[in-house]
């Protein structure tokens, strides 16, 4: 029986990627974990589809840059109405939702998304982004249907950890990952 060269080549490539990741993990300093995560995402093909609903241009730019550097695709919305429209247009693996935005705030947008999910049976994690850090603010966000809560200014290590926690709980919806 003749060897299957295509299968052998694919196995060899997969093994080489694994070795490369292991070598980089062993040689990079700890503060390069974001770079390593980006490399792992690119090698594995795991690119999350993230909806970022944020009206502040500085926060938008910072968060989008961090996500894109990690290899994820970001769709921006400047208010709750745009977030709802984006949610209706395409599936997302994660939504980062500012609480205070013009036209429609993040709480109302989250309630709209959760209502739409009742017919689809799907649940996308929504993480609140807010400057409100008073007692009861977290509960207000969770009560509106958000899954988690990050305070501004955003701590990038907290953002990365939150993204990892919510996206490792389920398989991403990214078409490239569906078999």
Give a verbal description of the structure.
With 179 residues, the protein is α/β, with parallel strands linked by helices. The protein folds into two domains: 1-45, no CATH class; 47-173, 3-Layer(aba) Sandwich (Rossmann fold). It has seven helices and five strands; from the N terminus they run ααβαβαβαβαβα. The protein has helices spanning 5-27, 33-44, 57-69, 80-89, 106-120, 137-143, 156-167; strands at residues 49-53, 73-77, 94-98, 126-130, 148-151. The chain has a five-stranded parallel beta sheet with strand order 2-1-3-4-5, with helices on both faces. Helix 5 links the parallel strand 3 (94-98) and strand 4. Helix 4 (80-89) runs parallel beside helix 5. The radius of gyration is 19 Å and the shape is globular. The two termini are 29 Å apart. Mean pLDDT is 78; it is low at 5-45 and 171-179.
Biggest sheet character: 5 strands, parallel
Quantity of strands, as a count: 5
What's the number of helices? 7
Shape: globular
Corresponding CATH superfamily of the largest domain: Response regulator
Quaternary class:
single chain
Tell me which CATH architecture of the largest domain applies here. 3-Layer(aba) Sandwich
Q: Main sheet: which strands, in order across? A: 2-1-3-4-5
Proportion of residues in extended strands: 5-15%
Rg computed from alpha carbons, rounded to a whole number of angstroms? 19 Å
Poorly predicted segments: 5-45, 171-179
**Can you identify the CATH class of the largest domain?**
Alpha Beta
Q: Give the % helix.
A: 40-55%
Cα distance spanning the termini: 29 Å
CATH topology of the largest domain: Rossmann fold
Coarse structural class: alpha/beta
Count of distinct structural domains:
2
Helix-strand string: HHEHEHEHEHEH
| Rounded average pLDDT | 78
